[in-house]
Amino acid sequence: MRKQFAMVLAGGILGAGILATGYAAEGKPEDTVKYRQSLYNIIGWNFKPMGAMAKGEIPFDATAVARHAQYVEMMSKALPESFAQGTGPDAVKNTEAKPEIWTKTAEFDTKMKDFQREAAALNEVAKSGDEKAIKAQFGKTAETCKACHKAFRKD
Ligand code: HEC
Q1: One digit per residue, pLDDT tens: the chain, 155 residues?
Q2: Which residues line ligand 1 (CB under 6 A)?
Q3: Which helix (H) or strand (E) holds 89?
Q4: How is domain 2-152 classified at the CATH fold level?
Q5: In the chain, where are the structural domains located?
Q6: In this structure, what are the phi and psi dihedrals at residue 17, rounded to the nearest 5 degrees?
Q7: What is the pTM of this model?
């Protein structure tokens, strides 16, 4: 009985998981931060070539964009869990996350959802191979990176 109740409770927490702070840190906070930074590294690595294409620095490559956009969307979905409670600068030294992430949670969650929505739209339009539409959607997605960094990442 008690075990069942605990599972229902855990399910409820996971169900509300879109809230960054709905997660409790599993294991060491340092490990969660490493995971978080790894996700952002994968996002950045895949975002960069798309940016260079958008600026016309390298030739547009629809196949590459489709692949990169897929990874960005996937990582965007994994991110909220990496902002578990107790993984801010008060607990961990090596992080650029601002403490406001865990106090202005509604604002942070909105910025996270904005990013996830635009990344999903980018992945969708990337499948079409439509260069103009892809570049426009890339721009929209990049805005959501900037908006969150401005508010919630130390320079
Ligand atoms: C909802 C907020 C948010 C969004 C959206 C966001 N970022 Fe970040 N980003 C952060 C925070 C916070 C950190 C600092 C993480 C840490 O050090 O713990 C970070 C760190 C990074 C890092 C450095 C990772 C490292 O090596 O430490 C890169 C690169 C990065 N972001 C790229 C991007 C790109 C590209 C996008 C958009 C495609 C993006 N981010 C969208 C909040 C965000």
Answers
A1: 444 444 444 444 443 444 556 676 668 999 999 999 999 999 999 999 999 999 999 999 999 999 999 999 999 999 999 999 999 999 999 999 999 999 999 999 999 999 999 999 999 999 999 999 999 999 999 999 999 999 999 98
A2: 33, 36-37, 40-41, 43-44, 47, 72, 95-97, 111-112, 115, 141, 144-145, 148-149, 152-153
A3: none
A4: Four Helix Bundle (Hemerythrin (Met), subunit A) (1.20.120)
A5: 2-152
A6: -60, -15
A7: 0.88
